[in-house]
Design brief:
Layout (H helix, E strand, L loop, with lengths): L5 H5 L2 H10 L17 H5 L4 E9 L1 H7 L1 H11 L5 H9 L4 H5 L12 E9 L2 E8 L6 E4 L5 E4 L6
C-alpha cells in the first residue's frame, strides 16, 4: 500500500477522493532512496510530462479562452507539441487571446496578455513564455543557477 503524502492525510475523504480522480497519484509519496532522496534515474526514465503555467493580462480574455488550460490541452493532446508551441498558439502575437478580442483588439486592452510556464519532460524542466503585448515581467533561475529577469521578448 502506498504511503500517503502529508496533505492527503489531512484532507476530508470526499476532497481526497475528488483530487485523486483528477490527479493520478495524488496523495502518494514518490519513490525515494535510503536517505529520502528521489532516484534521479528512475524519475527521468518514467515518461513523466508535467506543465505549470501562470497568465497575466486582460482577465476576461483569459477566462473566455481558458488560456492556460487550453495551452495545456494543446500540448497534451497534439502529437509531438511542446508547451512552448502551445503557449505561442494561445498567447503569442495573433494567438487565441488576441483573436478572442475581435474588433476590440488594440482599442480596449482586451486580448492582451501573456503566459509563462514550466514544462517538465522525464525530469528535465524548461521555462517557456510568450505574450502579445509590449512586455511581460518574468523571472527564473536557469540551469546554471543564474537569476534571469526579462520584460521584453528578447531571449537571454
Amino acid at each position: 500500500m502506498p504511503v500517503q503524502a502529508p496533505l492527503a492525510r489531512i484532507l476530508p475523504d470526499g476532497v481526497r477522493d475528488a483530487l485523486g480522480e483528477c490527479l493520478p497519484g495524488f496523495g502518494r509519496h514518490q519513490d525515494t532512496g535510503e536517505r529520502g532522496v528521489v532516484d534521479e534515474e528512475k524519475r527521468r526514465s518514467s515518461g513523466m510530462r508535467a506543465v505549470a503555467m501562470s497568465g497575466t493580462g486582460n482577465g476576461d480574455s483569459f477566462l473566455r479562452t481558458a488560456a492556460t488550460r487550453t495551452a495545456a490541452a494543446v500540448a497534451r493532446f497534439s502529437p509531438h507539441r511542446s508547451l512552448a508551441s502551445a503557449v505561442r498558439e494561445i498567447a503569442g502575437p495573433g494567438g487565441e487571446l488576441q483573436r478572442s478580442a475581435g474588433d476590440r483588439w488594440g482599442k480596449t486592452g482586451e486580448g492582451e496578455g501573456g503566459i509563462i510556464g514550466i514544462e517538465v519532460v522525464d525530469g528535465i524542466g524548461k521555462v517557456v513564455a510568450d505574450f502579445n503585448c509590449g512586455g511581460m515581467f518574468r523571472s527564473w533561475i536557469d540551469d546554471d543557477g543564474k537569476e534571469r529577469v526579462m520584460i521584453d521578448s528578447r531571449v537571454g
